[in-house]
Amino acid sequence: MTDTASSAPVRPAKDVLYQRIATEEAFAPPEMLEIYRKILAKGDVDPGFEGLMGFYMSSPSERAQHIMRCLTDLDQIRLGHMDEAGIDRQVIALTSPGVQVMDTATAVSFSRLANDQLAEAVRRHPTRFTGMIAVAPQDPTAAAKEIERGVNQLGMNSVIINSHTQGEYLSDPKFWDIFAAAEAMGTPIYLHPNSLPRNMIQSFQDCGLDGAIYGFGVETGLHAMRIITAGVFDRFPKLQMIIGHMGEALPFWSYRLDYMHQATVRSKRYDSIKPILKKPSDYLRENFFITSSGVAWEQAIRFTQEVVGVDRVLYAMDYPYQYAVDEVVAMDKMLMSADDKKKFFQTNAEAVFKIPPRPETRRRAP
Q1: Dist CA 125 CA 89 (whole Å)
Q2: Do the Cβ atoms of 303 and 249 come closer than 8 Å?
Q3: pLDDT one-digit tens code per residue, 190-208
Q4: What is the pTM of this model?
Q5: Euclidean distance between the first and final Cα of the chain, in Å?
Q6: In 10 A of CB 313, how many CB atoms?
Q7: What is 21-27+79-352's CATH number?
Q8: What is the dihedral of CA 229, 232, 238, 240, to 10 degrees?
């Protein structure tokens, strides 16, 4: 990107009083893309998966080609883009839908392979990469064991789950072994968007609003609310989750969510809506961290900080799906105290993902 007045490349400042840690950045092992190709070649493919990964894996468009090239790289291409954007570290996760579109046996096996590959990349670049643990919710017992392996053997300290798993949601108690393991191991779960499930997608696809423009946020926000209203945090009070894209709009809905949840409980309209110990917004403030992935908008960031607290809002880029150097420049210029800006870019991420702070105070120039 360039400055329209001078045509000089826009570059983030090289000497700032914080490190920039991007916390929702994606990768895809080539072996996973081969599995995807086999799934796409079958009949009756899930329409959301076909519309998302089917497009990106086959489109000749510049955007699709950029995304696929960058997803599979865990070395020089990625590091070069990080340096260009002034990103000191990426927290990397298996791209959506990860293993959640696979059959159970393949999903369990491949999650281990993907985690091993990511752990090896972190070992190659220990000051630049941090990894999230991929799991197969299709087998909650195996997923819980993989969380333990990811922490104890691979040194990862967070979990990625790409929203629904073939139309099923983590609010169903059959998945709660995953929550138990995450709480026990102190690993936050990043609830990342997935393409819309089969029973939800048609009205969104009809008008081209099924993806990141709108549908992803609607579905992932729904998933987070299902988890809250199912009483997950009453059962697992120390469990922490992370949602991106400025909380999938939930902070902006907080007042109405609180009011209408209580009204719905009183009405006894739904068997699925029972009393919970706190208001929905309380769980947002106490059990969720929120990243700015894809929303380089100062007003939204500052509002969310006011709603959930400055210690719970983190920077993310959403690489490679959204890679815009000028967005980093804009967020460097936010009207925010030096302490709060350092929390946003660096120290909140260090705390959430258990990243040892680097000794230098100022980031090194690329």
Answers
A1: 10
A2: no
A3: 999 999 999 999 999 999 9
A4: 0.95
A5: 18
A6: 26
A7: 3.20.20.140
A8: -70
